[in-house]
Specification:
By secondary structure, the protein is of the alpha+beta class. It contains 6 helices and 25 strands. A hairpin with a 4-residue loop joins strand 16 and strand 17.
């Protein structure tokens, strides 16, 4: 018999849900592996939607048993429970769930059918200890520029780069824009020949939905066999995810570091103008384009053969260099500024066909947006 705090169980289920495979090709991955022993209850789910991935939540409990039940069924049952839960088993393949006056009996399967979670810590080559708040904040900035519609491609991953001594750099790109930042972490690269790993963005998004306290420590370990092992020990959370093995482009060559013209933007006013002009810029024949003419002010214009023209002017600070003109996708431009969180943004450019760089004041964050060819 297992008597488990209802809040702990509901929190565990809530944390597992983002990692679940919504349409698994292996039927057993519809199930959650439930194991109780040594005063702990562990719930493990698998996901091959973004590669081999397993996530485990461990909470205090009593009892000794092991079986698999459908994760969707367990979620529905736990959602209806209002008081502490008593788990028990009948035979090998039935899980009894009792809460107050409620009793549920769930059909299950043997845990031998559930895949083994990879775990080979002997081959770990890089590790990081970082607060959940720091890593999740920087990951949110980076994965905004990725594209998870192209699985197993470099655009569907976030690059964890340990090339810089004692620093972890995060990079994401969809081929049309790129985001780069550094984390505030303690890093140690064991093998110099292995210093870059590409993590599936679907895992990143699930990880960022964990809702754990921001000051909790996250441990990340990368191995030469292509796996990331992660854990938040104080929350009983851990997991394994296979890494993408596609080559990552030399992203440093995409980030211009010698732009000839720089402008400090007034973020709220610029976003407001872009939102207004997008009515014209997002017409079917308008290529979602905003023409930017930067001098003493930021002059914005959009044109659509079907609808007409629109223009706006917002203040900016011309820091140095000459005037410049280029065109950007209006959505990318707007999203790039929204990531500033009302902080200072410096926009840099060297010509109409050159990448446009955005630096976020007081941070290591850099965004690059590729220009659209100006209309004739």
């Amino acid at each position: 018999m297992n008597n488990t705090d209802i809040k702990s169980v509901k929190t565990a289920i809530k944390r597992l849900k983002p990692f679940a495979d919504s349409k698994p090709t292996l039927p057993i991955l519809n199930y959650v592996k439930v194991q109780a022993s040594n005063g702990k209850l562990s719930l493990t789910i698998g996901n091959i939607g973004y590669g081999t991935a397993f996530t485990t939540v461990t909470i205090p409990a009593t009892g000794e048993y092991s079986l698999c039940v459908k994760f969707a069924d367990l979620m529905k049952v736990i959602d209806k429970c209002k008081s502490d839960i008593h788990f028990s088993t009948k035979g090998l393949h039935e899980l009894n769930v009792e809460s107050g006056s409620l009793t549920f009996r769930l059909n299950g399967r043997d845990t031998d059918d559930f895949p083994e979670r990879p775990d080979n810590r002997d081959s770990v080559n890089a590790s990081t200890a970082i607060s959940y708040g720091d890593i999740s904040t920087e990951l949110e900035f980076v994965y905004a520029s990725t594209d998870d519609s192209t699985p197993r491609n470099f655009t569907s991953g976030v690059l964890f780069d340990y090339t810089r001594p004692e620093r972890l750099r995060l990079v994401g790109t969809d081929g049309r824009r790129l985001h780069s930042t550094f984390t505030k972490s303690r890093c140690h690269s064991v093998a110099p020949d292995f210093n870059q790993w590409l993590v599936p963005v679907q895992f990143i998004k699930a990880f960022n939905r964990l809702q754990v306290p921001t000051d909790e420590t996250v441990n990340l370990e990368f191995d030469t066999n292509g796996y990331l092992y992660w854990s938040i020990p104080t929350e009983g959370l851990s997991g394994t995810v296979s890494l993408l093995d596609t080559p990552y482009p030399d992203y440093d060559k995409v980030i211009p570091d010698d732009c000839t013209s720089r402008f400090r933007l007034h973020v709220p006013e610029t976003i407001e103008a872009l939102n207004a002009l997008s009515v014209v810029a997002t017409q079917q024949d308008g290529r979602d384009m905003i023409v930017v003419n930067a001098n003493g002010t930021l002059n914005l214009s959009a044109r659509s053969d079907a609808m007409g023209e629109a223009s706006g002017m917002v203040p900016c600070v011309h820091l140095d260099g000459s005037d410049t003109m280029f065109a950007l996708n209006v959505h990318y431009f707007t999203e790039t500024l929204k990531l500033a969180d009302k902080r200072e943004v410096v926009m840099s450019n060297s010509g109409s066909l050159e990448p446009v760089r955005f630096d976020y004041g007081g941070t290591d964050r850099v965004a690059v947006v590729m220009p659209v060819r100006l209309p004739e």
